[in-house]
Amino acid sequence: DVANPAAPRKVGFYDTPGDALAITLAGHYAYVADAGGGLRIIDVANTAAPTAVGFYDTPGWAQAVALAGHYAYVADGNAGLRIIDIANPAAPTAVGFYDTPGNAWSVALAGHYAYVADGGSGLRIIDIANPAAPTAVGFYDTPGYATSVALAGAYAYVADGGGGLRIIDIANPAAPTAVGFCDTPGDAVGVALAGHYAYVADGWWGLRIIDIANPAAPTEVGFYVTPGWAHSVVLSGAYAYVADGGGGLRIIDIANPAAPSEVGFYDTPGDARGVALAGAYAYVADGDGGLVILRLLRDKFTVTLLSEGGTVASTARDAYLVFPSGSFTSTISLTYRQLWLDENTSPLTGIGRTFELSAVYRDTGQVAPLAPGHTFTATLHYTDAERGGAIESTLALYGWDGSAWVREPSSVLDAGTNTITAAPNHLGLFAVLGNTLRLTLPVVVKRN
């Protein structure tokens, strides 16, 4: 759990046989570039107990993987680009390859082209229209050591160790040309894009944020020096998730690109090299620590409650929970977790007030339910901005029964104060949900 997101805990892991260097997700599978272990396919449907499904032992050193259709494209070090059919995840098979002249570190896909960051041989562009016979189309020899590439429009953005961020025009794949560059202070090894900014994982120099609104003159606008070695970065909303080597996973608030700040971290057991996000989870390729799965939360804390009861407030003071005397038969440890994302809410919509309550007895460690016949009071506040597209008059507290959201019968809305109160008789997973605005069109029947 990545709490507030500042007090995370591990949810699950799978110890791959090699060094997990990068990860890509599709459906309920994680595709791990596992260095000497090749491509590993892991079922993560049960995040607490991921299981191996299949693998393909590539001939090189699997550095990164990208997916398109039922193919995995593996940047395989000195063995170049390897194309693997993953239609049957239990039995992946080699389809084709292109032996690039350098060391293939990463790969990005667009149309029927693969763009390979090829170490000392720069950016290599390969036509993959026929996966069984990929062919070289063009290249641009960057001045440094190309380790990562991201695409946006007609440009490729290359993290070029020793050469900073390089921007290359790929409108004509047969003749890519340099457009601009920004020389970062460290070893640029990873890059991600959002809006008109590039976020560069810069080795010892952490996260560098570069304005690329004018590709011919990119400029650094902000940075955050992480404690480890920043290998890669992915983005979600106002946060950058940095795989920081020995520094684990670092979560950086980038709402203000000129002043990024760390909001949380998890010190993974290995060497965090890559990260991918899906739903409320972060999946970390953790070197010799294998695959590590973290649950992303907005808030998490544990408090002690005596049998006399008490009041609990969320960190943001937008949720208050009142437990009257006798709610529990003895002293408990109550844990509050607020999820980062609302899950499985269709056809309703959430407003960011999904939270989980659990309790254990302090003396035995056994699960502590509410005492029979007792309820607690939940008072939840929201803003108009958080409500978003939900119809305010329909907002209510719901509880998850294991397969569906069920409206709490005691839920009461006070739209004047943006408050919902309810008196549940159980702990568990809760969410504030409502209907969304829908357009209903009249049905016109034409009679002859």
List keywords for this structure.
single chain; 448 residues; mainly beta; 5-stranded antiparallel beta sheet; 1 helix
Any overview of this molecule?
The protein contains 1 helix and 39 strands. By secondary structure, the protein is mainly β. A 6-stranded antiparallel β-sheet has the order 29-32-33-39-35-36, with no helix packed on it. A 5-stranded antiparallel β-sheet has the order 30-31-34-38-37, with no helix packed on it. It has a 4-stranded antiparallel β-sheet with strand order 1-28-27-26, with no helix packed on it. The longest helix has 4 residues, at 384-387. The protein starts with 9 loop residues before the first strand and ends in a 14-residue tail after the last strand. Mean pLDDT is 92; it is low at 1-5.
Give a nutshell description of this structure.
This protein has one helix spanning 384-387, and strands spanning 10-14, 22-26, 29-33, 39-43, 51-56, 64-68, 71-75, 81-85, 93-98, 106-110, 113-117, 123-127, 135-140, 145-152, 155-161, 164-169, 177-182, 190-194, 197-201, 207-211, 219-224, 232-236, 239-243, 249-253, 261-266, 274-278, 281-285, 291-295, 297-305, 310-313, 319-323, 332-339, 349-361, 377-381, 396-400, 405-407, 412-414, 419-422, 428-434. By secondary structure, the chain is mainly β. The strands form nine sheets. It has a six-stranded antiparallel beta sheet, with no helix packed on it.
